[in-house]
Amino acid sequence: MGHAGGMRGHASAQSGDVGGMGGHLGAPHVGWRSWVTTVDHKRIGILYGVSAFVFLLVGGIEALLIRLQLAGPGQAVVSAQGFNALFTMHGTTMVFLAVMPANAAFFNYIVPLMIGARDVAFPRLNALSYWIFFFGALFLNASFLVGAPPDAGWFGYANLTSKQFSPGMNVDFWLLSLLVLGVSSMIAAVNFIVTILGMRAPGMTLMRMPVFVWMTLVVQFLIVLAFPPVTVGLIFLMFDRFFGTHFYDVAAGGDLHLWQHLFWIFGHPEVYILILPAFGIVSEVLPTFARKPLFGAPVVIYSGVLIGFFGFGVWSHHMFAAGMGPVADAAFSIATMLIAIPTGIKIFNWLATLWGGALRMTTAMHFAIGLVGLFTIGGLSGIMHASPPVDLQQTDTYFVVAHFHYVLIGGSLFGIFAGVYYWWPKMTGRFLDERLGKLGFWLLFVAFNAAFFPQHYLGAIGMPRRIYTYAAGTGWAFWNLVSTVGAFGIAVGVLVFAVNAWRSLRAGAPAPADPWDGRTLEWRTSSPPPVHDFDEIPAVSGRDTFWREKYGPRRGAPPAPAHDHVHLPAPSHWPVVIGLGIALLAVGALTHLAVVALGALVAVVGVFRFALEHHRTPAHAQQIGSLGVDHRKVAMWVFLGSECFLFGTLIATYLAYRGRSVVGPYPHEILNIPVTTLSTFDLLMSSLLMVLALAAVQRGDQRQARLWLFGTALFGLIFLGFQAFEFTTFVHEGLTLQQNLFGSTFFVLTGFHGGHVTVGVIWLLSLWVLALRGRLAPVDAIKVEVAGLYWHFVDVVWIAIFTLLYLIP
Amino acid sequence: MATRKATTVYLYELAWILPSFAIPVGMLVALVVTAFGAGIHLPGQERRIDPTKVAETAPFDTPGLVELAPGQYEVRMTAQIWAFAPNEIRVPAGSTVHFWATSKDVVHGLLIPKVHVNVMLLPGQVAHAVARFDTPGEYPIICHEYCGIAHHTMAGKVIVEAAR
Q1: Per-residue b/e over B76-105, b at no fewer than 16 CB within 10 Å?
Q2: Is residue A794 scored above 50 in pLDDT?
Q3: Alpha carbon distance A211, A217 (integer Å)
Q4: Res. B3: pLDDT tops 70
Q5: Judging by beta carbons within 10 Å of its beta carbon (0-12, 13-18, 19+), is residue A628 exposed, middle or buried?
Q6: Domain of residue B130, residue span
Q7: Is B73 in the same domain as B125?
Q8: Over the stretch A143-191, which tens digit does the pLDDT of each residue have?
Q9: Do B84 and B103 reside in the same domain of the chain?
Q10: B70 in the same domain as B32
Q11: Residues A140 and A587: beta-carbon distance below 8 Å
């Protein structure tokens, strides 16, 4: 296999020196430009990690200000407005800019190493998701610079977020950056699902995958399925604020439960998105330092998968006080109690792993065991919320604040620290100081409990969340002071880690390839690994394969290692260009339409150049993974899965709001079924042409390929023409986005579908242009096939929309 | 550990097994006791209301405290940024108070610690909660759903007077 892009990789692969963060990167890979254009999963992992730490500090400073303000009654350290912005930004920053990217750092750096791969399935997409995240994060924090930081709370309950009650740009910053960050998470999730399913080393069956890889896989599925509902909720909010629709307008017939449902159907799986990676890390750290295999590893895996499933069925326990009725309350109450079972199983399996092990109490082990204890406390206070009468005493009090900080700091953050201390030598080639590490652990452990345990009590005696200040006679002052002291202790603990990291990078003791006597494949390669990860893709003979390799026994003969040629993708600057375009779009939404147009131009040009960059690179032609299916096809299927949730949410909203408009025109007065039947027929027929186009490309018939590709696009254009005709007719008859709830839901749903058709038409026309230039050979059939999958999906969705909107009155 | 006395349950095993049965049983008991014994019920969606016409819609057209029967009171309460109306209620000890409440603008909360009132007040929806005040004293009424810049000032109180 020849490869144009691999040359630079080869050059750098020869320099295997062990140094600081960048020491392993050879001559061509230096300077800031190499970091901006990098597509190396390890470097992207480091970028994620550094960004996450910076935003952990930002969110931490916000937390310290909050705690200073609440340290005593009647204080005025910050203004009330400032306080509201601080707790909103603290929550949003910690969830989306600190913990999620910290987890992404491990996904990026460790997962490909653990499964014995040379990179992720789509290295450039990986860079793209980082840069979109980077610009989204900057955009969110830019709100401070223009004096309009978001101040509606991290779950932004409608209708406080409406233009009427939040007229400034504050909420706009929040919703736009969340949309941008969602795109980033989605791209990364698709990428990692394809990577884990399709790029495992020979012999690594699903059940032989390390538990961390399993938890990563579950988390990516959660992201793919949970982000669409909140995306739709945010899009509704955006339309309400920018275009005057009525999704969260009670007077027009809207129902504020809608936002709460859309947010929490994302928000609860999000909790597991934050915590499951930590569970995965602990499941790697405990066996290594107990020198025992993970007790009941398959059960730990199954329970992780179950948590993922149940995670989608418990969101309404956030809404017990909102008045949903006894049936919904009972169902969600039981589901919430059930989810404790797989979680409990994990805890007991970790304890059983420790039982009788030869424990080495390293810093990583301290944090892992700390997680087991602290998460259990957070888990127990969590199950309490499952019981509606108990929950009623706790909703929106500090008890809840205590609970989720036990889960997110005692769980996620301790897990992340365990991972940092465990994998730092692998990532940098140097050890962190163990004495400083343990000092940091004990500081964090004690200070964390001092900060958050009293909040249980504060909540129980009635202190509500999100209050700027409180009166002296409430009896809340003492424990608030304790909590503030604890919070500063946490800050010192984090600082100790920063000092430790700095000292290690400058002059830490060099680490060998396998410093902890590890069990998984990442310890099989040098520390830090060469650019191509493994000289030879290792063969896998069982779970803990590296341990078996070192100590036996192997189960049967190992499969032959794969002696493939090392192909490393070339650096690309299109990811950062596309990210910049998206950032410009968001900036334009708040400033001027011209900036939106510029942003769209940059993004579209970026996407085209990105797509065509390796159109003729032979090494990119074949991307068949270990599933026997092309990576791009798997990726499209996963993406379509998330699209189902996107359209499902849009359609469900339309149905929920059907018949609730308070003014006309109403659907039966206006919908033109005969005309839409024609356009539906046209769209369905285009699917037939698409099949013909693919067949023609596959057999290399250039003339037919051009004909049918153009035909499919033309039918798509005809459908769009019908839609334009329908929309203008409706507007003339008085139905607009702003007219009533029917107009809002109808235009947003069908408009989104029309947008998908438009993207499809552009995609097909681009393929047609490639065909005209004779650049669409049979080897490129996969590109047409992937476009076809998308096109068929868009057609199928229209059948659902046509039936539910037009045919069923 | 693997000596073949397979049927023996060791003490340390029991120490794990018993609590793991006791915890769910305890939770279930707590659920039953609080729901039936203490009479704590979840708020339901009692009825819908046009948030722009709260003042003209019954029962909010006659806001305030109404004595239904001796020891039985009803409060028709509206919440808006950033106040409850009425924001001070006087009842004698031993009274049962029915709260009928809604919001005129954004989502508010109605929390009275110590008695079992914790309900969201959504615009467009009438919430209902019942509380019994036995001990004389002041009970704060707190808005606990974040509602904007002066959220922390949004409070009222129930004053329970010693029975004459």
Answers
A1: bbbbbbbbbebeebebebebbbebbbbbbb
A2: yes
A3: 10
A4: no
A5: exposed
A6: 46-161
A7: yes
A8: 999 999 999 999 999 889 999 999 999 999 999 999 999 999 999 999 9
A9: yes
A10: no
A11: no
Number of domains in chain B: 2
Angle A326-354/B11-32 helices, nearest 10 degrees?
A: 170
CA angle A692, A693, A699 (to 5 degrees): 90
A339-387: per-residue pLDDT in tens? Answer: 888 888 899 999 999 998 999 999 999 999 999 999 999 988 888 888 7
pLDDT at residue B43, as a whole number: 66
Q: Is any Cβ of chain A less than 8 angstroms from the Cβ of B20?
A: yes
Q: How far is CA A240 from CA A234, A263, A264, A573, in A?
A: 10, 16, 20, 36
What pLDDT digit, counting tens, does each position of B73-103 carry?
A: 999 999 998 899 898 999 999 999 999 999 9
This prediction has a pTM of 0.91
Q: Name the token pair of A276.
A: 């499951």
Q: What is the mean pLDDT of chain A?
A: 90
The gap from C-alpha A145 to its chain's centroid, in whole angstroms, comes to 26
Shared domain for B56 and B25, answered yes or no, is no
Active site residues of A: 90, 119, 154, 184-185, 268, 270, 272, 283, 317-318, 343, 346, 465
CATH code for the domain of B72: 2.60.40.420
- State which H helix or E strand residue B112 sits in: strand B108-112
Amino acid present at A99: V
Q: Is residue A416 within 8 Å of A494, Cβ to Cβ?
A: no
Ordered strands of the B117-121 beta sheet: B88-92, B155-161, B137-142, B108-112, B117-121
Token readout for A795 is 């057609």
Percentage of residues in chain A having pLDDT higher than 70:
95
Predicted ipTM of the assembly: 0.82
Please judge whether A84 and B151 are an interchain contact, meaning their C-beta atoms are less than 8 angstroms apart.
yes
Q: Is the pLDDT of residue A675 over 70?
A: yes
Confidence of residue B164 (pLDDT cuts 50, 70, 90): low
B151·A467 Cβ contact <8 A? yes
Residue type, A467: I
Whether residue B96 sits in one domain with residue B139: yes
Q: Tens digits of per-residue pLDDT, A227-283?
A: 999 999 999 999 999 999 999 999 899 999 999 999 999 999 999 999 999 999 999
pLDDT at A321: 80
Q: Are A173 and A590 in contact (CB under 8 A)?
A: yes
Q: Are residues B95 and B60 in the same domain?
A: yes
B31 and B59, same domain (yes or no): no
Q: Tell whether B130 lies on the interface with A, counting CB pairs under 8 A.
A: no
Contact A173, A150 (CB under 8 A): yes
Which of B100, B78, B107 shows the shortest CA–CA distance to A158? Answer: B107
Question: Which residues, 6+ apart, have CB-to-CB distance to A415 below 8 Å?
Answer: A275, A277, A278, A279, A281, A282, A367, A368, A371
> How far, in Å, CA of A748 to CA of B53, rounded?
29
User: Other C-beta atoms within 10 Å of A684: how many?
Assistant: 16
Cβ(B109)–Cβ(B120) below 8 Å? yes
C-alpha dihedral sign at A462, A463, A464, A469? positive
pLDDT band at A559 (very low <50, low <70, confident <90, very high): low
Q: Which pLDDT value is given to residue A395? A: 84
Give the whole-angstrom CA distance, residue A309 versus residue A272. 10
Hey, is the C-beta of A383 within 8 angstroms of any chain B C-beta?
yes
pLDDT at A7 exceeding the cut of 90: no
- For residues B102 and B149, membership in a common domain is answered with yes
CA–CA separation, B131 and B77 (whole Å): 14
Of A81, A323, A397, the CB nearest to B149: A81
Separation in Å, CA of A663 to nearest CA in chain B: 14
Q: What is the mean pLDDT of residues A734-762?
A: 95
For chain A, helix (H) and strand (E) counts, in that order, are 26, 0
